[in-house]
């Protein structure tokens, strides 16, 4: 296994700037996820690490060794992609065995490994089939199996389970995570699925338009997002945002959303005292941290109108409108209310985040 270092890596396709100067250290045996929306440059970055795509500028190192001039097959990376080029004339067994045969293993050894992998992926009953007789989900499993049969320096997975149905995907996710823990591969995993990235990775690198927005543990990304992009991309239902104006009145620091005064979050007071709150602020609060009541109370002071209430079995999601802004709230299972009914909200001041509305950057209080 190896560490992977990206140093100011750029990728341009003609006029398209796909990757705009990424620097990142991935530790030996680490599981790093590249997370971001379609087109943000995840696959381009991955293909440059694999050597399948030329680097426009910058450097890539494995264990401190410069890889730029090293041919793909000499980098010893294993890859599993969203769409697999399986050998069409070979059956599944031979597709899995092929990379093993070229690594000087004995026939018995190869057979054992193929059956082990097939068993793990639960595709043993497909071993005799040709790729054309497989669903796209089954083809993905075979492609994943073929990558797993190697013992590479770095393991690259690009949306490897995106074609599976939800149930299979959640199962495969657990397999991949377990495999990483047991085998200690250095893994780089590309996905646009935030839940997948959070569930699998030691650290998540969130990408947006060719740039790294934030690199951190799933907890850091979730609780301390560096900007509104990361905050809105990670978490389901997504974070709610409210545009507010900052004002001082009789020595108090207030945030107004269209005339409704919001309680200043805990860290906002400290920020305000050192003059670090800009005139326009985006307030961010996750659906779990808003409390909803049918009556006004000492805590429930923000009036909102019910749009709809959805009982989802393991949680109930209430969607409400607050002076034109739409908010989602995860509430208790038994909560029911009619559309247009007035309800009262309480934001948890210890969980409310603030962002500069101009730049989208988080306003962070550092003692
Ligand atoms: P992601 O994997 O995050 O969806 P990609 O790395 O595939 O993103 O693409 C990033 C950007 O580069 C997109 O705008 C895409 O259209 C463009 N792009 C990717 N590959 C090529 C290519 N071979 N030629 C031209 N543009 C490309
Ligand atoms: Mg991609």
SSE map:
Layout: E1 4-13, E2 16-26, E3 31-35, H1 42-50, E4 57-62, E5 65-66, E6 77-80, H2 92-101, H3 107-121, H4 136-148, E7 154-158, H5 166-183, E8 187-191, H6 194-200, E9 203-208, E10 211-216, H7 218-223, H8 228-233, E11 240-249, E12 252-257, E13 260-262, H9 266-273, E14 280-285, E15 290-293, E16 302-311, E17 316-322, E18 325-331, E19 342-347, E20 353-356
Parallel strand pairs: 3-8, 3-9, 6-7, 7-8
Antiparallel strand pairs: 1-2, 1-4, 4-5, 9-10, 11-12, 11-14, 12-13, 14-20, 15-19, 16-17, 16-19, 17-18
Helix pairs in contact: 2-3, 2-4
Magnesium ion binds at residues 42-43.
| Largest pleated sheet | 6 strands, mixed
CATH architecture of the largest domain: 3-Layer(aba) Sandwich
Which CATH C-level class of the largest domain is it? Alpha Beta
Main sheet: strand order: 6-7-8-3-9-10
Can you say what the CATH homologous superfamily of the largest domain is? P-loop containing nucleotide triphosphate hydrolases
- Secondary structure class reads alpha+beta
Radius of gyration over all CA atoms, rounded: 25 Å
Shape: elongated
Count of discrete structural domains: 2
- State the share of residues found in helices, binned by percent: 25-40%
Strand tally: 20
Hetero groups bound? adenosine-5'-diphosphate, magnesium ion
Overall residue-averaged pLDDT value: 93
- Can you tell me the residue ranges where pLDDT is under 50 for at least 5 consecutive residues? none
Provide the CATH topology of the largest domain: Rossmann fold
> What is the CA–CA distance across the termini?
39 Å
Query: Helix tally?
Result: 9
**How large a portion of the residues is in β-strands, by DSSP E?**
25-35%
| H and E order | EEEHEEEHHHEHEHEEHHEEEHEEEEEEE
């Amino acid at each position: 296994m190896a560490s992977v270092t990206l140093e100011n890596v750029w990728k341009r396709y003609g006029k398209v700037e796909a990757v705009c100067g990424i620097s990142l250290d991935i530790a030996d045996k680490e599981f790093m996820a590249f997370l971001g929306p379609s087109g943000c440059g995840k696959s381009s970055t991955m293909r440059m690490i694999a050597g399948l795509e030329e680097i426009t500028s910058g450097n890539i190192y494995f264990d401190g060794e410069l890889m730029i001039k090293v041919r793909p097959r000499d980098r010893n990376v294993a890859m599993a992609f969203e769409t697999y080029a399986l050998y069409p004339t070979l059956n599944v067994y031979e597709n899995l065995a092929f990379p093993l045969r070229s690594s000087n293993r004995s026939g018995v050894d190869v057979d054992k490994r193929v059956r082990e992998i097939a068993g793990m992926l639960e595709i043993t009953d497909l071993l005799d089939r040709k790729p054309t007789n497989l669903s796209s989900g089954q083809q993905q499993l075979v492609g994943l199996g073929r990558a797993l049969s190697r013992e590479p320096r770095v393991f690259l997975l690009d949306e490897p389970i995106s074609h599976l149905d939800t149930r299979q995907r959640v199962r495969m996710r657990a397999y991949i995570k377990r495999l990483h823990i047991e085998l200690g591969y250095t893994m780089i995993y590309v996905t646009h699925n935030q839940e997948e990235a959070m569930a699998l990775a030691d650290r998540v690198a969130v990408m947006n338009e060719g740039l790294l927005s934030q690199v951190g543990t799933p907890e850091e990304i979730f609780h301390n997002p560096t900007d509104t992009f990361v905050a809105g991309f990670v978490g389901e239902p997504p974070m709610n945002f409210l545009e507010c104006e900052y004002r001082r009145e009789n020595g108090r620091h207030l945030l107004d959303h269209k005339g409704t005064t919001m309680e200043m979050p805990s860290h906002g007071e400290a920020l305000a005292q050192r003059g670090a709150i800009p005139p326009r602020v985006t307030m961010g609060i996750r659906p779990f941290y808003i409390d909803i009541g049918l009556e006004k109370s000492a805590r429930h002071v923000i009036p909102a109108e019910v749009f709809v209430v959805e009982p989802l079995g393991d949680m109930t999601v209430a969607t409400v409108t607050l002076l034109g802004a739409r908010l989602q709230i995860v509430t208790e299972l038994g909560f029911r209310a009619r559309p247009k009914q007035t309800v009262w909200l309480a934001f948890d001041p210890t969980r409310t985040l603030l962002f500069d509305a101009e730049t989208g950057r988080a306003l962070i209080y550092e003692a």
